[in-house]
């Protein structure tokens, strides 16, 4: 296994520069001017799936097989016949229906649902049955049949891509983003679209994290209206924390994956720009934007990352043997010295050293970003029209 330099912690920047990236409980800030979407109704979101989703009843057995479980654990339960891909998909859809909108526990994390999700789950069950009949080995470290949510600035052919903006509600006939095509190639089910800070937080610096005109105000499941969601991939982080899907895909220019991952206690990976394709994602800056996975654990993050980067094996050194062995001998971790005062951080470093990891102390002096906003303005002036010209619904061509 190659040796990589990891950074602890992963969360440093936020798309919105303010103290709200810390889990505070400011009464003034939490008095949201707008909470619910003026464009969405819960039953309408579920469309042709509504009747079956409402009829579905979760059980303690399903809870134990799905909630907080890793992708390999879920795949193992399905391979052993304890669960089906249809059960899994219905379970998540039912949780979204119960907890996401129009009730006292609303999180407003979901903007749209894939009308073909259950058909795709049924196909995954058929494919699995075929593999079993052939006597083939059933892979566990795969996205086959795994329901995944997309931040709603990422194109998929089954649903509109709005970036949270009312003006893009008709942006329906869009080709799959390259990363979405990769996810589907690995067998993933695109379950739906997640809410976000509108336009990835670019046009509304004073808006709360996680607010969009289309989706309303996303709320943190660990503290509705008391703990900030982070942004701009707010709905993606909230959805994973609330067990609305196996994983979600966010996007980042400066902190938009890392901030909501931190705020919602999930694992977010912001790869180096260019690691994953940006084709089919509503842009701020093609030079700085990147998509990335948000998951419940590190193993799932690596599995999703491997699919996102296909056909290029950007993390091919993380094979299944590495997942199963879990060896840290010789792996290098970058350590920010300013965090060592935190007892939990200190304990984590001690645990890593005991497993043979190499800790390298880093200077946490932050670079000056003079002219950063000007750069983003110039990039968006060029990149957004390019998206409309080649990746949007035809009615937006020429914008």
From TrEMBL:
Domain of life from the UniProt record: Bacteria
Protein name: Amidase
Cited InterPro entries: Amidase_dom, AS_sf
Amidase domain segment(s): 88-363
A Pfam short name: Amidase
Classification via PANTHER family: AMIDASE, OS04G0183300 PROTEIN
């Amino acid at each position: 296994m190659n040796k990589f330099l990891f950074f602890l912690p992963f969360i440093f920047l936020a798309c919105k520069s303010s103290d709200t990236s810390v889990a505070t409980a400011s009464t003034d800030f939490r008095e949201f001017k707008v909470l619910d979407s003026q464009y969405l109704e819960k039953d309408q979101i579920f469309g042709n799936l509504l009747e079956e989703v409402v009829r579905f009843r979760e059980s303690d057995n399903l809870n134990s097989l799905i909630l907080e479980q890793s992708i390999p654990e879920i795949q193992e339960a399905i391979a052993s016949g304890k669960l089906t891909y249809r059960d899994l998909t219905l379970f998540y859809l039912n949780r979204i229906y119960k907890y996401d909108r129009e009730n006292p526990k609303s999180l407003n994390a979901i903007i749209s649902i894939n009308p073909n999700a259950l058909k795709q789950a049924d196909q995954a069950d058929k494919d699995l049955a075929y593999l079993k009949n052939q006597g083939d080995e059933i892979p566990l470290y795969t996205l086959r049949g795994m329901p995944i949510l997309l931040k709603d600035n990422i194109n998929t052919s089954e649903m509109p891509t709005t970036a949270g903006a009312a003006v893009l509600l008709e942006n329906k006939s869009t080709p799959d983003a390259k990363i979405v095509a990769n996810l589907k190639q690995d067998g993933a089910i695109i379950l739906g679209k997640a809410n976000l800070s509108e336009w990835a937080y670019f046009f509304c610096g004073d808006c709360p994290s996680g607010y969009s005109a289309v989706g309303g105000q996303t709320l943190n499941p660990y503290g509705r209206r008391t703990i900030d969601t982070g942004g701009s991939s707010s709905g993606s982080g909230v959805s994973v924390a609330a067990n609305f899907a196996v994983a979600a895909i966010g996007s980042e220019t400066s902190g938009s994956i890392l901030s909501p991952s931190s705020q919602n206690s999930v694992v977010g990976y912001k790869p180096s720009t260019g690691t994953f394709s940006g084709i089919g994602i509503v842009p701020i800056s093609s030079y700085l934007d990147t998509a990335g996975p948000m998951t419940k654990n590190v193993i799932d993050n690596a599995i999703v990352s491997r699919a996102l980067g296909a056909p290029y094996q950007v993390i091919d050194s993380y094979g299944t043997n590495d997942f199963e062995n879990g060896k840290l001998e010789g792996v290098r971790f970058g350590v920010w010295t300013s965090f060592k005062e935190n007892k939990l951080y200190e304990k984590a470093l001690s645990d890593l050293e005991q497993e043979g990891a190499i800790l390298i102390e880093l200077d946490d002096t932050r670079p000056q970003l003079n002219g950063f906003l000007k750069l983003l303005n110039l990039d968006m002036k060029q990149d957004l029209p390019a998206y409309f010209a080649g990746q949007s619904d035809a009615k937006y061509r020429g914008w």
